[in-house]
Amino acid sequence: AAPAVFAAVDIGASSGRVMLGRITLQGGVQLETVHRFPNGVVEIDGGLRWNFDALFAEVLEGLRTAATVAAGQGETVAGIGIDTWAVDYGLVDASGNLAAQPFSYRDGRSSDAVEPVHRTLDPERLYATTGLQFLQFNTIYQLATEEGLDGVQALLIPDLIAFLLTGARRTEATNASTTGLFDAVAGEWATEFFTALGLPDGLFPPLIQPGEAYGTLLPAIAGRLGLPSATPVVAVGSHDTASAVAAVPAAADDDGGFAYISSGTWSLVGLELKHPVLTAASREANFTNERGVDGTIRYLRNMGGLWLLSECQRTWAAEGFRPELSTLLAAAAALPGGGPQINADDPSFIAPDNMPERIRAAVRSAGGVLTDDPAAITRCIMDSLAAGYARTLADAERLADRSVDVVHVVGGGSQNALLCQLTANATRRPVIAGPVEATALGNVLVQARAAGAVAGGLADLRAIVAAGSSLTRYEPADLPVTTSRK
Ligand code: LFR
């Protein structure tokens, strides 16, 4: 038989990609990017939305390229897996039409819905069942703004893509756990919340677990892609963070003793647990119990992330200042530590536009001073993120009664040496940085396991990632960070 390769569709808030993943003879995963495309929120019909039609066209384009590349190397595309950011959904009618382009969680509409939802279901009750961190954009609040949900179904973004590829309507469990309507202990929909909020019972399609197949390609789609219609679309950890955590290259003997930071647009900082922590202290610290691959619990906080910097870069670029990221970070690293910090989690940073001024205003209102020098603003963001990571890690250890001896940083931020070193310093723990493509690796490995190309539990999948990645270790230091640290 032709060697198997797996196609991973991975779409983040700022870009998407289609990759081919091969299990190598050396026992690692080799990733090949076959298509890349930009993403971002757009103003459509008076709201901040995702241009889903354009994204889906890019997905098809990427899968068509994947099919061509695989065929050219005598390989079979043995599966397609999809992951994206969480919480957002498209509404689909009975005949399968998408009513409108899906809203982005960055749209402000859901913040007005928080109070009415909490009048019906108070935060204590919500947390005791869902264990979900309060974020104003959780699906439950977004849905509370919708009118006329009868006769439509809500499909989370990866599920919506899978539906258009296969015709099957399902809700993947790791992503379902971010809706605020999912029971963290039972691993099922919290049906009593649907009733309490007047949401239709069947608003979301039935759950599907990572490793199960949604179905095979619709014939018309298969034809357009140049793939056999028997090609399965396999559920992975369709919440990108679930896929990323599955591919954290923790050592098997570090069972539970590691923390992770999935660092990209957001920073997801926490631990992997077997059971949710639903205590009042955990709710007050705003920790989430999201579902991971293989029924694990991703006990973490969603914190501000590199969105702060990418938004600054967008503003500076519009003003004609477009340094390379590495240049900007080097200039930030050359500045002394101990400068002003912000609370990177402040909801006032969720919306786009004019980020440098918003950051300076936050420093000012805390009584500090931050100049408009991009290097100083960049340094402020990095110092603030690292300090926030350290606080969150200490909270996680306390709340889950665990102790951590190493911090893994995966995703885009793992390539940011300044952030990694500051994180090691602030957490007083070694940081192991990489792989940058953890999300795509987690996506490929869950598919590969479902196809029998690899075997074992999460520890085994992680060993495969570790074997195939070059990782950078940062030791905690009291010394100021300089660019010559290598
Ligand atoms: C990261 C992420 C986070 C989620 C945020 C919004 O890409 O999926 O886990 O909190 O995006 O969906």
From TrEMBL:
GO function terms (MF aspect): ATP binding; glycerol kinase activity; rhamnulokinase activity
Gene Ontology CC terms: cytosol
Gene3D superfamilies tied to this protein: 3.30.420.40
Keywords: ATP-binding, Disulfide bond, Kinase, Nucleotide-binding, Rhamnose metabolism, Transferase
Pfam families associated with the record: FGGY_C, FGGY_N
Homology family: Belongs to the FGGY kinase family.
PANTHER family tied to this protein: L-RHAMNULOKINASE, SUGAR KINASE
Name of this protein: Carbohydrate kinase
Organism per entry: Pseudarthrobacter enclensis
The organism's taxonomic lineage, starting at the top: Bacteria, Bacillati, Actinomycetota, Actinomycetes, Micrococcales
